[in-house]
What does this fold into?
Amino acid sequence: MTLNTQEKQKLINKHQNHGTDTGSAEVQVAMLSQRISKLSEHLQKNIHDFSSRQGLLKMIGKRKRLLNYVREKSGKRYNELITNLKLRG
It folds into this structure.
């Protein structure tokens, strides 16, 4: 359910704004989206894992707040991010 170092590095390289960017909102949203998809697969197999479900809901809320922040700062970056991650639509 967690991301290993290689997966994190791929996401960072794909979504970073500049060479040393590791914590921008875009990178955080990409990592959260990957963790959410892995945890969703886990919860489909393990229906009664309620503590993981609670963690999933917290991650979804955090991703939503980060996406709102990106939308407020730049609509263009927001649109690029949701199309790259295939989040909506």
